[in-house]
């Protein structure tokens, strides 16, 4: 892989990470301001996150056609499963079994778990995004009064850790080329 291509892949990962974090922080604000808004926001964001995730995977794996078909298929099935779970939550909300705010937090938790698993099996970037979403979900559940005070610094900490990871990985790949 050429150095220019590595830089483009790194930029794609960073842009995707920032996109997910910004959308998640917006969701945090929406959840805080409107309890019903949390349900609507996260239900809409699930397919948007799926498209962004699939887009990043397609971009990063477009070199090998066999690998891309298998990888995209696995990721697509995983996202379809998540959207199926969101549908089940919709049934719970419409029947009154679950409140809209709780369902919104549950969708956020499912998104965090789904992205974390994608990070484990497909693209490491999603591990960091999954951790950030899990922290947001945990923060919304525990620190409702102090949400912004806790979650924003934690999100920044995870972003910094991600950048250090990328730098270390870049140094390791450049030292491999020197050999």
Which features does this protein show?
179 residues; mainly alpha; 0% strand; flat; transmembrane helix; membrane
Q: Would you write up a description of this structure?
A:
By secondary structure, this protein is mostly helical. It contains 6 helices and no strands. The longest helix has 32 residues, at 147-178. It is flat and about 60 Å long. The model has no long low-confidence stretch (mean pLDDT 84). The chain crosses the membrane at residues 12-30, 42-60, 72-93, 105-136, 142-166.
Q: How are the elements arranged and paired?
A:
Layout: H1 3-33, H2 35-61, H3 65-95, H4 100-121, H5 125-142, H6 147-178
Helix pairs in contact: 1-2, 1-5, 1-6, 2-3, 2-4, 3-4, 4-5, 5-6
Number of domains: 1
Continuous helix count: 6
The number of distinct β-strands equals: 0
Rg value: 18 Å
Terminal CA distance:
15 Å
What does the largest sheet look like? none
What would you call the shape? flat
- What do the pLDDT scores average to? 84
Beta-strand content bin: under 5%
Structural classification? mainly alpha
The ordered H/E elements are HHHHHH
Percent of residues in helices:
over 70%
What are the segments in which pLDDT stays under 50 over at least 5 consecutive residues?
A: none
Keywords: Membrane, Transmembrane, Transmembrane helix
């Amino acid at each position: 892989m050429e150095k220019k291509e590595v830089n483009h892949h790194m930029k794609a990962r960073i842009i995707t990470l920032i996109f997910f974090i910004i959308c998640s922080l917006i969701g945090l604000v929406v959840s805080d301001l409107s309890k019903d808004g949390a349900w609507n926001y996260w239900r809409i964001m699930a397919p948007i996150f799926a498209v962004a995730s699939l887009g990043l995977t397609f971009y990063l794996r477009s070199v090998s056609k066999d690998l891309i078909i298998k990888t995209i298929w696995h990721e697509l099935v995983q996202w379809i499963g998540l959207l199926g779970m969101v549908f089940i939550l919709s049934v719970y909300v419409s029947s009154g079994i679950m409140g809209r705010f709780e369902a919104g937090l549950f969708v956020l938790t499912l998104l965090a778990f789904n992205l974390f698993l994608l990070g484990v099996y497909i693209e490491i970037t999603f591990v960091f995004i999954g951790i950030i979403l899990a922290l947001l979900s945990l923060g919304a559940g525990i620190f409702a009064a102090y949400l912004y005070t806790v979650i924003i610094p934690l999100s920044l900490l995870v972003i910094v850790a991600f950048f250090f990871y990328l730098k270390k990985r870049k140094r390791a790949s450049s030292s491999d080329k020197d050999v």
